Amino acid sequence: MRVVPIGTSRALKDQVYSILREAVSNMDIYSTPEPPRLDERKLAEDLGVSRTPVREALSRLEQEGFVRNIPRRGTFVVRKTKKEVLEVVYAMAALESMAARLATTCASDEDISRLHELCDPYDDEEARAHINEYSDANVDFHQSLIGLSQCELIESMADSLFLHMRAIRAEALKNLEHHRSDQSIKDHRRIIKAMEKRDADKVEKLVREHALSLSEHIDEFAQYLD
Hints:
Layout: H1 12-25, E1 37-38, H2 40-47, H3 51-63, E2 67-70, E3 74-77, H4 82-106, H5 109-113, H6 116-119, H7 124-129, H8 131-147, H9 152-174, H10 180-196, H11 200-221
Antiparallel strand pairs: 1-3, 2-3
Helix pairs in contact: 1-3, 1-9, 2-3, 4-8, 4-9, 4-11, 8-9, 10-11
C-alpha cells in the first residue's frame, strides 16, 4: 500500500481514515496467494502520524468489512468469496440501474455528454493496450452515472459497494482472453446513446444487463475467487 503524509485541514483521524480507505480500495488484492497484510507501524510512519489514528482508522475499516484483524497475526485486507462478490454485483445492478433511470430524466444534456469523455478515447485495442488506464475510466464512468441521478441515498449506498468492487472490476477487465473490456466499451456507448434519447426504460434495462453480464463473467472465469 502506498500512502503519503497528510496535512491538517481536517480532523486527523478523519484524514487518516479517508486515505487508508481509498488506498485499500486501490490495492490489487486478488493477485497474490494470501490477502495483503497492513503494517500499522509503517502506515503511521508513511503518513507522518502516531499509531493511534491509524489504529482507529483500521478499526472503522474493519467495521465496514474492508479489513480483518487476526489476533497475533495482524490486520489483513478482506478478500471476498465468489458468492459474496456476486451478491455485491446483484446489489449494484439494482442500485445503478435505478440511478441511471433517474439520471436519464434529470441530468442535463451537457452532463450526459461528459460521459463520452470517459468512453470515446477507447476502442477495443486501445483499452487492451492501456488496461489499467481504462479500468480507472470504467470506474469513473459508473460513479459518474450514479452521481447524475442526484439521489444522495443511492450514491451513499453505492459508494461502499464500489470500493468492494473496484479490484474485481479491474481483474475482470484484465482477462483479455475473454474480452470483458470490449463488451464494457460497447455497453457504455449503448447506455450513453439511450440516455441522449431520454429513453429511461431502455437505459435502466441496459445498465442492469451490463451489471449482470459482469456477474456471469465472474461466475465463469474468476477462478481466483474459488
